[in-house]
Amino acid sequence: MPKWPNYRAGGLHSAAVGGAYTPHMGFDVAAEAYDRFMGRYSRHLAPQLADLAGMAPGQRALDVGCGPGALTSELVARLGPGAVSAVDPSPPFVEAARARHPGVTVLEASAESLPFDDAAFDAALAQLVVHFMTDPVAGLREMGRVTRPGGVVAACVWDYGGGQGPLGPFWEAARELDPTVVDESLLAGAREGHLVELFKAAGLREVSQAALSVVQELGSFEDWWEPFTAGVGPAGAYVAGLDEDRRAQLRDRCRALLPDGPFTLTARAWAARGSV
């Protein structure tokens, strides 16, 4: 009998304990697939993270792990394209971010090795990225390096540890069907207070925590479920690893946890801000 994918052997589990953020984790996908899967939530987070970082005209900012550019768009609206730079390790995301944001410098790079001079920005921000860094402390330290003295580093991660992320019902269903599954709750920054610990370990000062909240309207259960089948992120990779019967079981269990008709999903992210 086919078995459920075992992420203890690699993939998601390796990320949970510091494994690399690579396209194999489900980010070597079309930008449109990411937009449908996570972009619909992250676009609501972007203004809140920009507010937390105090982004205002006249500043220069770096978007670390920009994806297709939800946060990049917010920074461009506030600062102008010439004042914004962005990096991401996924080639499809870099291509999309460049096409969507003319005038923004978008480079293919990881957080742990940023291709910028010291003190090049007033702020460095990472939205839904720290938990996928190869080495979160090293990545945050690099963000501090490229930020001027007195500047700001800010980041946020879904509250997977508290089960309040937008994928909470998915992982709840997956755990019910396979108690050995390793979900995203163990990832860096995904529990209350952990981002603050990571910021301090990276040498950032005056570190504080905030909770950000997102409310997303969904037209139907299918509207919620369909993006999981595109293979995006650890959850999408998990679905892609299931045979047809197991996928149907997971879908049915998720359906039992959510309404059929229009409904509202509320999600929480933990955020941290520190000074260089």
CATH fold annotation: Rossmann fold
Mean pLDDT: 88
Overall geometric form:
globular
Low-confidence stretches: 1-24
**Fraction of residues in helix:** 25-40%
- The CATH superfamily bears the name Vaccinia Virus protein VP39
- What's the number of helices? 10
What's the structural domain tally? 1
Architecture, according to CATH? Answer: 3-Layer(aba) Sandwich
Q: Write out the strand line-up for the largest beta sheet, numbering strands in chain order.
A: 3-2-1-4-5-7-6
Gap between N and C termini: 54 Å
Beta content = 15-25%
User: Element order, helices and strands?
Assistant: HHEHEHEEHEHHEHHHE
Describe the protein's architecture and organization.
The structure is a single chain. Strands 3-2-1-4-5-7-6 form a seven-stranded mixed sheet. It has one domain (7-275): 3-Layer(aba) Sandwich (Rossmann fold). The protein starts with 11 loop residues before the first helix and ends with a strand. It contains ten helices and seven strands. The protein has 276 residues and is α/β, with parallel strands linked by helices.
